[in-house]
Predict the 3D structure of the following.
Amino acid sequence: MVDVFLLSPPYKGMIREPIGLFYLANILIKNNISVKIIDLNICKMREKEFNDYIKKMQPKIIGITSYTFNFYITLDILKGIKKKYPKIITVLGGVHASALPKDILLECSFINYIVIGEGELIFLDLCQKILNGERCENIEGIAFLDGEVKITSHKKPLENLDFLQIPDRDIINSTHYPVALVQTSRGCPYSCIFCNICSYYERTIRFRSPTMVVDECETLVKRYNYNKIYFFGDAFTLDKQWVESFSDEILRRGIKFEWACETRVDNVDLSILMKMREVGCRTVQFGIDYGDEEVLKKLSKNTSIDSISDAVNWAKKSDLMVEAFFIFNCPGENQDTMNNTFNLIQKLPIDALEINLLTPYPGTKLWSDSKQLGMKIIDKDFINYTTKKYVLENEYFPKNKFVPAFKDLLKRLNLHTPDGTIPEIFNFLEKEKKLKTWS
């Protein structure tokens, strides 16, 4: 028997640790609440097997988090659980649910509560009250249906991220994951129109202490035998003093592992990149997004072509692999700006490239103000919100003009996978096939 089941629903793409559930479980366990995590991406259960397992473990609460693109799969799972085990309290969290709590609850009576925003303290409070038979309507940061949708007052996020501590990965069989994830920060001070992190974690960025992050790295290396770590945070190098302290701590302890991170081009310089390379960094990911400064302004990126070129060249001079993300079908885009982006890609010494289509995720300015941005949301089926589907139309560069230009761009880029096959990006305009919940 267990108090709480935490579920990670299936999704397409590289299998990654459900790091948010690890930190969440850690806090529950430290408060004497028993927890089990099931990642349905690695635990290939059939529906009957899953239901039998729930019957055996008898959880009182099931918490599940989802992205926008696997939201419907998440609903399938919760609906099935509630139908089979109506007494189990179902709780939904994550960025998507936090952006649309009212819409979701009005359509989904099988969801008891939605946790809005950063969830550790909210979910802890909710679980404690449910398990103690107490009323929950005054808990900050939740939404629930009581005749009508009730949304309680906002819960302030954690001020000190060291409160998360180091999760015990023995709660799940982590040998299935090729790379360990470690969270370094939460929040982002920037305001890109396509990103919902600010609405979820808020604008103020908070860092875990360098010592705590290195403690977790040392645990991963020495206890779990990981030699590859990805640092999860939206602006790894925003605070260069933090990076210096983090790097010095790794050197002091003599820990050896390879790692990667994502950051902005305007948050790096040659010195900090060389320091990162010295302590094991092998790959840096840049959200370059576009190769035209007017379009970058419309995306609220506030970066320049010069800063992009400098960052990529500094990274290569530091002997780092560079992965770059680009977004097309943007406000202000036309054939000329697309050509500018193609030319920039050809010029930059990039090692790996990911091409995406602009997607209006709930909780973003693009979702709420698409019309003012000259864009029109033409598809609200969230199963297509994979960044690989055409769900948004540019008023000034409509589909009949964008599609042939984009196809030509992809051909000119001549992108192929290592085995010589054409990657998924050439299927941008196809409708998504529904991912089955159960194997």
Observations:
- The mean pLDDT is 91.
- The two ends are 25 Å apart (CA to CA).
- The longest strand covers residues 281-289.
- The chain has two domains: 4-151, 179-427.
